UniProtKB/TrEMBL annotation:
Domain LysM: 248-295
Gene3D superfamilies, A to Z: Antifreeze-like/N-acetylneuraminic acid synthase C-terminal domain (3.90.1210.10), LysM domain (3.10.350.10)
TM spans (from-to): 7-27
Taxonomic superkingdom: Bacteria
InterPro entries assigned to the protein according to its UniProt record, in alphabetical order: LysM, LysM_dom_sf, Pilus_assmbl_Flp-typ_CpaB, RcpC_dom, SAF
SUPFAM superfamilies: LysM domain
Protein name: Pilus assembly protein CpaB
The entry's keywords: Membrane, Transmembrane, Transmembrane helix
Length: 300
């Protein structure tokens, strides 16, 4: 019996030694593999790079990564990247790949539309399209005119003009997507031409409906203008406002409220309801900096 237990103990001892050796050999193999792992320098984005952007050195940085873990097409040399255009959005810390770069500016319209926007063309004339002076990259407001509407010999809507879209980017005029003059331009204003606009996705239906049931005009904005106007529109009666009354257009500042604005113009906050009604503001708390509101005042 004692002899049996001795054999069992000896076998267990030998087995434990073998297991220990195997573990050490495995760890040593991992260490050796790590030591021989080849690291390479690659270029990654130092910031978010929107599609169509010209790549500059400050947008990039170098990091080292195991070669076997890197996707094919990585870039190590700045000279292969600088001055190229991003074919698609590149996010911060993303490895720069050749497939995401373009040697020349991408003129395909779909590559020049911002996320959550749509390209929509409107048919205009010289008098509704700023006399053919618009260029891609300009910004416009869209105004719709709706003629009087009657039902059962009753007027249910008077003639009205209203700004429906503001600060809308011009993507193309006819088929021209650059600011360079068309060599075929003879200086004459075409009878009709197309202007392609970059419209927020949620406003596409609004513009389509406006063009179908009314007449639209484009109003060119000043360069770098970002202000917006909150208006109920203009009807004929607005032409005949009492001479003793007028409107002031006020640009909202950071921290403004309708009550504060009422206090500033009327000496008390109680006219905030009037400001809400005139400017069609449903929630008095939702006014933002640079919004322009209409304030009725009296001349004295």
């Amino acid at each position: 019996m004692n002899s049996y237990f001795r054999r069992v103990l000896l076998f267990s001892f030998i087995l434990s030694i073998l297991v220990t050796l195997l573990v050490y050999m495995y760890i040593g193999k991992l260490g050796s593999k790590k030591e021989t792992q080849q690291l390479v320098k690659v270029l990654v984005a130092n910031t978010n790079i929107p599609k169509g952007t010209v790549i500059e050195k400050k947008m990039l940085r170098e990091i080292e990564l195991p070669k076997e873990s890197i996707q094919q097409g990585y870039i190590r040399d700045y000279s292969l990247v600088l001055g190229k255009f991003a074919k698609e959005n590149i996010i911060k810390d993303e490895i720069i790949l050749l497939g995401k770069l373009q040697g020349e500016k991408i003129d395909e319209l779909s590559f020049n539309i911002d996320e959550n926007y749509r390209a929509l063309s409107v048919n205009v004339t010289g008098d509704t399209g700023v006399s053919y002076l618009l260029k891609p990259g300009d910004y416009v407001d869209v105004i719709v005119f709706l003629s009087e509407k009657r039902e059962n010999n009753r007027v249910v809507r008077r003639d009205i003009a209203k700004v429906i879209l503001q600060n809308i980017k011009v993507l193309a005029v006819d088929r021209n997507m650059t600011r360079q003059n068309n060599p075929k331009d003879d200086g004459k204003v075409p009878t009709r031409f197309f202007v392609t606009l970059q419209v927020p996705a949620q406003d596409v239906e609004k513009l389509v409906l406006a063009e179908d049931i009314g007449k639209i005009k484009l109003s060119l904005r000043a360069n770098k203008s970002t202000d917006t106007i909150n208006s109920n529109g203009t009807v004929e009666a607005d032409f005949f406002i009492n001479k003793e009354e007028k409107y002031i257009y006020y640009k909202v500042k950071k921290g403004d409220t309708l009550r504060n604005i009422s206090r500033a113009f009327y000496g008390h906050p109680d006219n905030y309801d009037l400001l809400k009604e005139i400017n069609n503001i449903k929630d008095e708390n939702i006014i933002v900096p640079n919004m322009i509101i209409k304030i009725p005042v009296s001349k004295k």
